[in-house]
Amino acid sequence: MSPRQLKKTLLRLGFWCLIGLLLLYAVFPFYYAIVTSLKPSSALFQVSYWVDNPDFSNYAAVLNQASFLRAIGNSLVVALCVVTLALFLSLTAAYALGRVKFRGRGTVLMLVLGVSMFPQVAVLSGLFEVIRALGLYNTSWALILSYTIFTLPFTVWVLTTFMGQLPHELEEAAIMDGASPWVTLTRVLLPLLWPALVTTGLLAFIAAWNEFLFALTFTLTDTQRTVPVAIALISGGSPHELPWGLLMAASVLVTVPLVVLVLIFQRRIVSGLTTGALKG
Amino acid sequence: MSKLKLHNLNKQLGGTRILRDVSLEIAAGEFVVFVGPSGCGKSTLLRLIAGLDSICDGDLLIDGRRVNDLEPRERGVGMVFQSYALYPHMSVYDNISFGLKLAKTEKSSLRERVLKTAQILQLDKLLQRKPKELSGGQRQRVAMGRAMAREPDILLFDEPLSNLDASLRVQMRNEIARLHARLGSTMIYVTHDQVEAMTLADKIVVLNGGHIEQVGSPRELYERPASRFVAGFLGAPRMNFLPARLHAPGATSLVDCHLLGMTSLPLDSSHLIADVPLTLGIRPEHVSLKAAEGAAGVVVTGVEYLGSETYVHMETGQDDPLICRCEANPGWQVGDRVELQLEANNLHLFDAAGSALRAHSHAVEALPDGVIQRSARAGAL
What we know:
CATH architecture of the largest domain in chain B: 3-Layer(aba) Sandwich
Mean pLDDT of chain B: 87
Distance between the termini of chain B: 54 Å
Mean pLDDT of chain A: 86
CATH superfamily of the largest domain in chain A: MetI-like
Low-confidence stretches of chain B: 362-381
Strand content of chain A: under 5%
Number of helices of chain B: 11
Number of domains of chain A: 2
CATH architecture of the largest domain in chain A: Orthogonal Bundle
Number of strands of chain B: 21
Number of domains of chain B: 2
Largest interface: A-B, 21 and 28 residues
Radius of gyration of chain A: 24 Å
CATH topology of the largest domain in chain B: Rossmann fold
CATH topology of the largest domain in chain A: MetI-like fold
Oligomer: heterodimer
Largest sheet of chain A: none
Shape of chain A: flat
Radius of gyration of chain B: 25 Å
């Protein structure tokens, strides 16, 4: 083997080693959660990386809890509402910020970005007062409102960037065709923004699905809780027992839909981004 | 009555005046080309007519009606954009019919009009394709079809051919000319390409620095440019300019130019005083060369062979060389000394402000077609 070929082989070997390392880092925790969830509680503390006899009793136990199913339902409603609301608002905002020239546009954008830098904890008490005043405490609307507030800066910013990249002449062509701004937005620009909408929508969905702090603070009863809180509040038979099997089964159950969503939309996102060529 | 009338149009953007008091009349069915260097305001003028930009001052009249405050769709204009700006997610059919749908056209007549438009532009077989599956020329035709579908009285073109390669550009240029002949609608066309301007236009409007330099037929502009700018802008290679001095003003001007010596020209300079600086202009095809004797004449510094003709460059002490358009094999080589022969009737004179001197109305016929020879006149006066 010539030195040149040797070098090439070594480089390739190093490349795959690095990939393996990254993969291990990213996937191992989730893999271990799956392994743990498939063990009966008696086998829980035997360290092993493979399950010979998968045991689904943890899943059965979790799915038999009415409150857990209820929490999944709540999470779904909240996340979907947040995505719809955030996409609608940010799309219209992005049209104004990315397409219409007006004084103070840059300031508005910087403000939007600035607002998104506040940590959740900083606004928690203030937001709590607002939600109490609006009479939304312990309802899904409290979560929808607060999540939308926290998602909007990100979605507005991303969609404004995408909107700004669409050629101006496209909009002007629509104007010459007699389209109103609303028609221009929905029938000309929206179909081209589809990949951006899917990406931002997905990220907004994940953020709403996984959020814990607001969900814990703004809801009180089992009937209003979302999944992350519900999982955290799963308790064992005695105060000294942490039901790891149950916790892991529940975690896997709520993560799987996200993974599936990403896998479904992944091809769309990529293909959308690569066929973005408008001119030619 | 003129189709389109621009009266003292002004456009300002952030303190800079882009258009200054532009006035123009365009007749129905005319093909008008706006031409000028980049940044001269030609595209802005087109956008003002389209209604994409607002007019700061002045009146825009279509069919005698003031349309300053009307939306583009209410003005009865269609526009073809430089980058085509086709809707990428729609088929050719949908692209063409989009405007008609928004205008709530009845379904059967909508289909009929789209098909008719497609047939005129030879797009019948491509109606179900998406823009990305079309070639450059086909996209261009779809863009024209979209502008035509609503049957506007005025069609606007914003540098429509600049994205195409050279051979396709010639082909599309002919197609646009045919389209104009067939539709008979008023067309306004913006370009920086003077060949497009010369070949397509009934009327050329030369813009420079936000104002109109000259309006006229291609022939008028080429043969009788009103200013040094127009003279230099139209024609390739461009007109040769030589510094000169007015010796004796009058209905026939006596001009002193160091290359030509004292020259009498049938151009009226009676409004000027003696000894003012002038610029003498001559197009390359009106220069002819003959071999010089001894140290007389000028030196050939370059020979460009183009197949059908040859451009000969000569050193004259100016920044730019003097260029002569000769037959394909003139026989000159770099380093040869040649004498210039200029056709007096084709000489242009421009005053210090750049305006052309006009022939005195009676003097034109009186002068014979003379050829001035430098050696014969130099030093004689």
